[in-house]
Amino acid sequence: MLERAEIVRKEYLRHDKKFPHVWCPGCGNGIAMGALLRAIHSLGLSKNEIVLASGIGCSGRMPTYIDFNTIHTTHGRALTFSTGIKLAKPELTVLTVMGDGDATAIGGNHFIHAARRNIDLTAIIINNSIYGMTGGQYSPTTPFGSTSTTSVYGHVEHAFSIAELAATAGASFVARSTVYHASHLEEMLKLAIRKKGFSVMEIISNCHVQYGKKNKLGGAVQMLNSYKENAIKVEKAADMSPEELEGKITIGVLADVEKPVSTEVYRKVVETARIKAAKLTKEKGKNRVKRYEE
Amino acid sequence: MESVETQNKILLQGNEAIVAGAMAAGCTFFAGYPITPASEISELLSVKLPQVGGTFIQMEDEIASMGAVIGASLAGAKAMTATSGPGFSLMQENLGFGCITEVPCVIVNVMRGGPSTGLPTSVAQGDVQMTRWGTHGDHPIIVMAVSSVADCFSITVKAFNLSEKYRTPVIILSDEVVAHTRESVVLPADEKIRVFDRVKPDVPPEWYKPYADNNRGVPDMASFGDGYRHHVTGLVHDESGFPTQNSKEVDAFLRRIHNKISKGFHEIMVTKEYLMEDAEVFVIAYGSVARPALRAVRDARRQGVKAGLLQLITLFPFPRKTVDTYLRQCRAAVVPEMNMGQMAREISRVNQSSCRVIKHNRIDGHLITPDEILKHLATV
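^ inputs. structure came back:
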């Protein structure tokens, strides 16, 4: 395990360039990043063929630290850049890391359309239920009734379930894990990256500095422990009632479907269009020769 | 036998000519969102691009279109989008990203009346200053205005070349009249079209500095997947591409991206002069208004008025030197625009002589007529 950690550090991190990182001590982002790098290492992907894109926020800083082709885009728009990159160079493995506000508030429209399109992309959403970097304002995943700097009287809105939203919008693969379940998370990430089509990996993570503190959930350790206590494997959750699942975190593969991947279908469009164009040019050429002969 | 002239002579509308220009320039990627009067560009490219192995995609909005265009360009494609005012408003955020990360791309804005949903889809020129200052922060940009179907072809080729050469977004400002007017044009043969491709690095990957200055001020650009792993960010960055707040590095970076455009003024600034040699009064016009302006100038000459036309193709960077030369030569400049005087403002700003700058503004959704301009020329 230690050996693997060392490989990941030496092989993948830009340790000589942009460290120390900006994340608070105990932040779940580091665990998510570690699991991602271990997943990529065991999949045997080359660094040159991976693009890691991000939006804005704490999660948005992740690409800075990793030695891939990396791009830190605008708030909520990361998937649109990833779409362009993947379409222009389909041989690249394009990963997009986002936060909950990034992916489902300002980027919500891009997120559901990326899922609908089913382009071969992997969206990794670190869900800490709050806007951490800007100081703890409520996000689309902040639970009803909880406290944030913009809901000091208790949050009056209801939260999105990111995984359900993704599955309904048409994602080919949806999984959820938490930063407590590091090994499980790594396995889920491997499946998500390997899956052809749009895959979504929701990672439940702790922002003890903003969300945890304001809602009296304790520090990083207490929050991680709560994930341990409340996580239910999807297979087990299938036999439980909605009442029993209240407050629980269902982890595992939530959706895995096979359907045409638009990046691949478009390659066929290109072939058809090329054949048609070639035919047209040929016919035009023939006509010209005829006219010259006359 | 067909003569050379008639061989490539075709009837095209402005939007179609932009597509022809884009294809000739080597465009391989288009992302856009439907909007009148720009939609023909999308429709035609959805047919043409796959024929050459390129990619067309219709995104969920113009924010996404601009994001996809920049992403594709970073992966090595020559990429473009096309829109009109409302969509151009949405593009400003990622346009700024394209400026700070120095990503070549071409954005066509086919102007219609505004603000907001405005006048769909009557002609206007209300987006001129927005092309220069629409996105936040100090940034350089190149904006070129087309006035005819022939322009649509040649300026589109030029826009792609400049974007690749200077690593910058280039905006083509068209308008509803140019976009939908059909004219017969002779397109140059493929081998006569000069196409410039971005300079790629040839150093070993470990030496590559994606934002380092060189004598041109335009760093070599590696594509994602070329083996030159690097970081691209909308944060102000140092020469290795990583975010910096070091005041020296910040200053050097922002000045370089401005200076690289200044270094190219000689080829970026494009104007056309008609009958200007001995002109005493002149019209400064751009876009579709340049057409009635030329007619007005010819009519004025027939009436004995020594009139000329300075047509601005490049609007930004503003062709200050050329404009200044003629302001010094003439006693009056008529500036007809289908807005409340967005370019007249620039012209007055640089006017150091006693030349009168006369605004003529029409904002009712109709093209300015030659007679309207002639009236000014005949009376000044």
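DSSP finds twelve helices and ten strands in chain A. The beta strands of chain A are 50-54, 69-72, 93-99, 122-127, 130-131, 137-138, 173-178, 199-204, 231-233, 249-256.
thumbs up if we can close this ticket
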